[in-house]
Predict the structure.
Amino acid sequence: MASVEDIGIDLGSSNVLIAERGKGVVFNEPAVLAVNHDTRNIISIGLEAYQMIGREPSGITVVRPLQKGTIQDFDMLSIMLNYFVMRVVGKHLFNRPRALMSVSATSNEIEKRQLILGMLEAGARRTQIIERPLAAALGTGVQINEVTGRMVVDIGGATTDIAVISSGEIMARSILDTAGDAFTDAIIRYIRLKHNLLIGWRTAEDLKSAIGTVDSQEQNTLSLPAAGRNLVSGLPRQADITGEELAEAAEEPLHALIEGLHSVIERIPAELANDVFDDGILLTGGGAQMRALKEVIQREMQIPVFVADHPQECIALGCALVLERPGEYARVLGEGRRSR
Ligand SMILES: Nc1ncnc2c1ncn2[C@@H]1O[C@H](COP(=O)(O)OP(=O)(O)O)[C@@H](O)[C@H]1O
Ligand SMILES: [Mg+2]
């Protein structure tokens, strides 16, 4: 049996990704569990649970243990993480990998220690935790040890993590709760108000990914039928939704995002701000894939903006990279724990 290499884990609010050293991302599933809310029995975890959203049988709820930058349900988080990690490493008990993990929520020391202990049970030999912006930057290939300031913005589902990094350290940071989910919520709201149509979360996510854009100035002829429930008749109905409408729906969260970027730049020292103006802003995370986001931020802020290749994978890849060259990145590592 092939052995498992050391693993990097992105414990996100929307998705959990696991990268293996030298192999890239080997696991990517939604961070959700389907739970019977009376007995707390778990029905399914990950993709299988995600597919139940909007069509849950009675008594079953699909929960997201990480939301709005905090751990909502620690037990569920822990069960989900262990299950995912076991699926990647479980069969290799004689070759336990080291793990480096990045968590998209501020967790306290007790919670961190519990997560690390859970990782031991799941088959990891040793687990350390790394700050999200450092992992994101490393995963894009940025040399974080350089003195030049780099602004990295990771747009996930629940949170946008904005950081300015210099000499391997986070010099300024702000975590907004405007991220991908806020755009999805805005689409649901907009269609309810404009079309009297209540669409489900997954329908809104699909619209956003397929024809969504955040640029209301863009020429846009795309449209897609969306199915929902008419709020007047109560019956199922479809409406054609256009890209232009989605851009209009995106205005509010877009504004909040740009405000958030501004406020970080305003409070960093002038030299770092100059670096950011020269080198630009680097976008990572699944939300960085929203169409025209790069162009709109660039236009509004007059700063160059870049979207990382495979933005959703950056954090997991960054974690795996640190494990490949631990000596080089010793200072970015948080505390770890050994089983022996
Ligand atoms: N092609 C796409 N276009 C627009 N948004 C996308 C696309 N793919 C993923 N997203 C959004 O990215 C967000 C999830 O990003 P991700 O980095 O996985 O989140 P997290 O790190 O919080 O788990 C969701 O809001 C999702 O809708
Ligand atoms: Mg992410």
Observations:
- The chain has eleven helices and 19 strands.
- The first helix runs from residue 47 to 50.
- Confidence is low (pLDDT under 50) at residues 335-340.
- The first strand starts at residue 7 and ends at 11.
